[in-house]
Amino acid sequence: RLVKGMTSHDLHVGWAALTAWGQALCEEFVTLICHQDGQRNELLGRLFARSQPSSGGVTHRVPAQRDVQMGALLEGFVKDPELATYAESADGRLRLFVLSDAQLFEFSMHFDYWLPPGSRQALEELDEGPSA
Question: How far is it, in rounded angstroms, from Cα 86 to Cα 6?
Fold first, then answer.
């Protein structure tokens, strides 16, 4: 599944995998941080369009969701409207900067502890995206 991050830069991509014992399916995720505005949405649209099986239709594409946990966290700290967000990796640490009308916030991101939304929580309606 695809989880659209709460900033304009992050995207979480999940897939089914077998556990270490090969007996059950689990879900694994990778988090992608895009450097330029618009790259995340372009990648999201392309992945969404490519997830359609050749014999299936639009309804067979992977679900796309919003990152509601990160959204709630940001709303708890950032009271003013956000003007910009920026992610930076330095010294092996990922930092998220959020600029509002009144303040600059810095968050240390630890995606090892990140949890995806529930299976029906925060479903997104996505356009078909680019055809390429």
Answer: 12
In this prediction, residue 51 carries a pLDDT of 93
Beta-bridged to residue 111, according to DSSP, are none
Task: Quickly list H helices, the chain.
Answer: 39-50, 68-77
β partners of residue 31:
12
Enter the pTM of the model.
Answer: 0.76
The Cα–Cα gap between 127 and 125 comes to 7
Is residue 15 within 8 Å of 36, Cβ to Cβ? no
Q: Residue 44: CB partners within 8 Å, gap ≥ 6?
A: 2, 4, 11, 64, 126, 129
73's tokens: 């966290």
